[in-house]
Structures are given as C-alpha cells and as structure tokens.
Amino acid sequence: DAGVTQSPTHLIKTRGQQVTLRCSPKSGHDTVSWYQQALGQGPQFIFQYYEEEERQRGNFPDRFSGHQFPNYSSELNVNALLLGDSALYLCASSLKRSRLNQPQHFGDGTRLSIL
Amino acid sequence: DAKTTQPTSMDCAEGRAANLPCNHSTISGNEYVYWYRQIHSQGPQYIIHGLKNNETNEMASLIITEDRKSSTLILPHATLRDTAVYYCIVRADKLIFGTGTRLQVFP
Q1: Fewest CB within 10 angstroms: A90, A100, A101, A110, which?
Q2: Mean pLDDT per segment of 10 residues, for chain B of length 107 residues?
Q3: Looking at the complex, does the CB of residue B39 fall below 8 Å from at least one CB of chain A?
Q4: In what order do the strands lie in the sheet with A74-78?
Q5: Which residues of B are less than 8 Å from A43 in CB distance?
Q6: Which residues contact A28 (CB under 8 A, 6 or more apart)?
C-alpha cells in the first residue's frame, strides 16, 4: 500500500523563478493538504484541496496556488520565489468522507532552496 | 482553533516508558486529539488519535482526561529510534503544529 509520495525530493531555484511541486496521495484518500516547514519550526498549513477545489487556506499570499486532479493527486505552485520561501514543503492526504476524523498522512516532503 | 501546550523537551532512558503530556484546555466537544512525531528530515508520522476514550495501537497509548483538557501519549518501551519531536494537535482538517516536545531517548 503506497503512502504519500512527493516529487522532487530536492530542488534549487533562484529568486523570482516559479516552482511546481507534486504529490500523490495515499491509496484510497481523496483530500490533499500542503504545509510549509521552515528550518527549526513546525509545519504551517498552506491550503487543502478536496473534489478539485481549494477548501481551506492558511495565511499565505496568492503567490502560492494549487491544483487537484481527478485522480486526487495535487500540485503546489509558487510564483516569484523569495529567499524566505526556502523550506520543506509537505503534502498530507486524508479521507474526507469519514465520520471518524481520520488522520492526515504525510509524505517526506520536497526541500526547496532559493538562492 | 484549540491551542495546545507541551513541554519543550524531555529525556527518557531506553526501555523505559516515555510519558508525553499535552494541555488543550480550550478543546471543543467534537475535536479529536491527534499525536504526530517527526524524525529529522522526514515528514510527520501519525501515531494515534482519540476523542474521549483511551486508545491504544501498536505504537503507543493515548490517555485523555475525563474533562478532555489534557492528554498523555505513552510509549511503553522507548527505543533510540523514538527520538523525535512529538506534536499534540486538536483539529483534524487544518493541522496547527505548535513547537512540540523534543524527546531524547538515551542508552
């Protein structure tokens, strides 16, 4: 049973560029959430996608956008990269249609470095 | 969103039980308590969750007080591989991570 997979594992970009990160959810999951984790801090919620729509959003600028595809996989796009965007980007998947508050399961992230 | 309070760090001898406390005094009636841990350079790993009853799985036990204002994660026989940052969270959809507890298991 494949867990959450993210690609690429590492990425180096320069300021002003754009980046796309990808996530495949755990088998059977229909909801994808994205988090940003700066060095030494806990993950911060960016947004959540369900049924191909953004359902919740954290305190992140519009430079951060996303997409969910019919197969439930998702992309995170960041435009006009800043040095402060350097972080570990985590994807988590879960099953929305559950009455038992099923937990989110995380991938190992994409480490993005901005030069 | 309910906030949680955890000790910054704890130590535990290998083979002993590790008891990690969490205060969540503002938790609402329908919010679950979730525990995750994060080992360096990996994504957070789900451990266990519960609403009001005590829970146990192959990884840990979760004890929730009757008033639900606090909980304790118990690792019954800690190993060196349990060294990690442990997060207590009280919302399912939008996980709000605090600073967590850095557990160091020593030989």
Answers
A1: A100
A2: 88 97 91 94 94 94 96 97 96 83 97
A3: no
A4: A5-7, A19-24, A74-78, A64-68
A5: 44, 95, 97
A6: A95
Q: Is the peptide bond before A8 cis (omega within 30 degrees of 0)?
A: yes
Of the residues A37, A100, A104, A105, the best mutation for testing chain B's interface (the one with the most B CB atoms within 10 Å of its CB) is: A104
3-state SS class at B81? helix
In angstroms, the separation between the Cα of residue A101 and the nearest Cα of chain B is 6
Q: Chain A partners of B73 at a C-beta cutoff of 8 Å? A: none
The pLDDT assigned to B69 comes to 94
- Give chain B positions within 8 Å (CB) of A36: none
Number of CB pairs, chain A paired with chain B, less than 8 A apart: 54
pLDDT of A97 strictly over 70:
no
The DSSP secondary structure of B20-43, one letter per residue, reads: EEEE-TT--TTPPEEEEEE-TTS-
Q: Is the pLDDT of residue A1 over 70?
A: no
Give the one of B36, B43, B100 whose C-beta lies nearest to A108's C-beta.
B43
Q: What does the pLDDT look like over A49-83, one tens digit per residue?
A: 999 999 999 999 999 999 999 999 999 999 999 99
Specify the amino acid at residue B81. Answer: R
